[in-house]
């Protein structure tokens, strides 16, 4: 598959770049995508939820009434879960929601996501560039000339470029990611993926 390479100003460079069929044209695996996205979302959870059990609730430990002769159930502590203000039975405890996923499955998921984007003609390639200074208006102008201003856009860079990252981080519908770190979730969440030309080789090398 070949795509036209444009400048970030919207002009045509007259060149084309070839996308590897081993990355951008495989048989998509929906279950691998599901697992990778599930793991990504699980890793975002803090897991800091906690409730107090009966041994952690503050209060007296004295027996609140005599054992027999009251006509009601026996009770040994005001901290019992059956009383208001008592501890909670089997309450939530801090835990990690993340789980292991094999590298090959994660790679397959990203290849599948890239294949879906390629089939949907939702990938663009722009020539390597940088901004002279961090300016959000320059980033917005780039999206406008690429006809992507009204779409959720993922811009994939080959390496960290501070000016580009700072220019795009305040935009709600745009995200900047590194080619080596781009996730399946990021690819699927975006309506359109913009690859800086050098980043394509990085993605292909990473996934192959």
TrEMBL record:
<feature type="region of interest" description="Disordered">
    <location>
        <begin position="45"/>
        <end position="79"/>
    </location>
</feature>
<dbReference type="InterPro" id="IPR023574">
    <property type="entry name" value="Ribosomal_uL4_dom_sf"/>
</dbReference>
<comment type="subunit">
    <text>Part of the 50S ribosomal subunit.</text>
</comment>
<keyword id="KW-0687">Ribonucleoprotein</keyword>
<comment type="function">
    <text>Forms part of the polypeptide exit tunnel.</text>
</comment>
<dbReference type="GO" id="GO:0005840">
    <property type="term" value="C:ribosome"/>
</dbReference>
<keyword id="KW-0689">Ribosomal protein</keyword>
<dbReference type="InterPro" id="IPR013005">
    <property type="entry name" value="Ribosomal_uL4-like"/>
</dbReference>
<dbReference type="InterPro" id="IPR002136">
    <property type="entry name" value="Ribosomal_uL4"/>
</dbReference>
<keyword id="KW-0699">rRNA-binding</keyword>
<comment type="function">
    <text>One of the primary rRNA binding proteins, this protein initially binds near the 5'-end of the 23S rRNA. It is important during the early stages of 50S assembly. It makes multiple contacts with different domains of the 23S rRNA in the assembled 50S subunit and ribosome.</text>
</comment>
<keyword id="KW-0694">RNA-binding</keyword>
<protein>
    <recommendedName>
        <fullName>Large ribosomal subunit protein uL4</fullName>
    </recommendedName>
</protein>
<comment type="similarity">
    <text>Belongs to the universal ribosomal protein uL4 family.</text>
</comment>
<dbReference type="Pfam" id="PF00573">
    <property type="entry name" value="Ribosomal_L4"/>
</dbReference>
